[in-house]
Amino acid sequence: MISVLTVLGAVVVGALLVLGAVQVATGWAPRRVRDDAPRPRLSGAATLVHGVGLAVFLFLGPLGSAVPRQPAIPLLGLAAGNIVGAGLRRLARRPPRAALPPTTSS
Questions:
Q1: pTM of the model
Q2: CB of 17 within 8 A of CB of 53?
Q3: pLDDT tens-digit map of 86-103
Q4: Torsion of CA 34, 40, 46, 48, to 10 degrees
Q5: Which helix (H) or strand (E) holds 74?
Q6: Best CA proximity match to 44, nearest among 96, 80, 88
Q7: What is the Rg, in whole angstroms, of the alpha carbon atoms belonging to the chain?
Q8: 26-55, pLDDT tens digit by residue?
Q9: What SS3 state is found at 84?
Q10: What is the pLDDT, as a whole number, of residue 2?
């Protein structure tokens, strides 16, 4: 029998992955994210990485059907997803480069 937590985890992870894929493919972002990140595609990649890290943790760890032999693997997946995702999110929030004036040749 599928528990409520498994369904809730699948819905949350699915929403993260769909939102990240839409951001990467189209450049569209929700208003709150759009205001914070001038690079929505990179922000979408960060969302994808966060979603994958959360999925690794949830479905290999507490919601997994079998007890893993290596309990550190789900935690490492979550940590790696969060660290890489936070780094990408930081890069997505950097201000855009200033445009250089055109050079004139004489």
A1: 0.80
A2: no
A3: 999 999 988 877 777 888
A4: 100
A5: helix 72-92
A6: 88
A7: 18
A8: 988 888 777 778 888 999 999 999 999 999
A9: helix
A10: 67
**DSSP structure class, residue 13:** H
- Contacts for 45 with CB less than 8 Å, ≥ 6 apart: 20, 23, 24, 88
Task: Give the CA dihedral 74, 65, 7, 88, nearest 10 degrees.
Answer: 20
- pLDDT at residue 53 in the model: 93
Over 80: is that where the pLDDT of 105 sits?
no
What is the SS3 assignment for 80?
A: helix
Residue with tokens 């894929």: 21
Cβ of 57: how many Cβ atoms within 10 Å?
Answer: 24
Residues 6+ apart with CB under 8 A from 5: 63
Token digits for 3? 């528990």
What does the alpha-carbon distance between residue 17 and residue 55 come to, in Å, rounded to a whole number?
10
Distances 30 to 12, 57, 86, 93, 105 between C-alpha atoms, Å: 16, 26, 18, 15, 44
